[in-house]
Backbone:
């Protein structure tokens, strides 16, 4: 059974810092991996999608890497801003379209 | 991309009653998914709903408790039946991840008293 773990559970940093969020999964047979942002009352927003054959994806200040063999992914946020404050979720995708989520990392960026 | 409208956004319900949550998509999609997020927990898939066929439920979820309708390619409903306080959660619908990203509605925050 696939399990997804995210570390740390919470993180507080001053504005401008670069930071890394970690995600690990137990079964390397994944279809893809996605990073989401969850804001209260606003549902989930997909940030980056990495297909199983890819190693990384970048979007603006965000960079996500995938190492299937070790069952790990990282989300790198450069030059953090207060607007980045949210809960970040990692989810691995199966071939049937289902997503298995970690519990998330709650990020707080202080001005 | 896809725009998903989910209603209601929140509700407070009495135990023993039922609530139907609606999910409307602005484009036709093959697969729709319903998730539950219990307080402090990760999202868990309840079921997958394909138009024209019965929903497929994940382990631990049954049709009698969470009946799902999928009458067309843009709409689905999830009913939470005979509610108890343990059903207090955020319920989210999501559409076909081959779009290619998964898109989610804003969620329904349910409190059962």
Residues:
């Amino acid at each position: 059974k696939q399990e997804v773990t995210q570390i740390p559970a919470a993180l507080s940093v001053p504005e401008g810092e670069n930071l890394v969020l970690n995600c690990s999964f137990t079964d390397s047979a994944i279809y893809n991996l996605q990073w989401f942002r969850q804001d209260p009352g606003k549902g989930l927003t997909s940030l980056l999608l990495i297909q199983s054959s890819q190693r990384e994806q970048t979007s603006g200040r965000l960079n996500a890497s995938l190492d299937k063999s070790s069952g790990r992914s990282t989300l790198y946020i450069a030059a953090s801003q207060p607007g980045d404050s949210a809960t970040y979720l990692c989810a691995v995708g199966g071939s049937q379209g289902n997503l298995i989520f970690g519990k998330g990392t709650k990020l707080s960026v202080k001005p | 991309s896809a725009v998903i409208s989910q209603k209601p956004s929140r509700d407070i319900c009495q135990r023993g009653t039922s609530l139907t949550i609606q999910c409307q998509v602005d484009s036709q999609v093959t697969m729709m998914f319903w998730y539950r997020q219990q307080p402090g927990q990760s999202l868990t898939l309840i079921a997958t709903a394909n138009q024209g066929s019965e929903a497929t439920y994940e382990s631990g979820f049954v049709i009698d408790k969470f009946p799902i309708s999928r009458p067309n390619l843009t709409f689905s409903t999830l009913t939470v039946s005979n509610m108890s306080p343990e059903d207090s959660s955020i319920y989210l619908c999501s559409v076909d991840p081959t779009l290619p990203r998964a898109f989610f509605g804003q969620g329904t925050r349910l409190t059962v008293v």
Observations:
- Chain B has a mean pLDDT of 92.
- The radius of gyration of chain B is 13 Å.
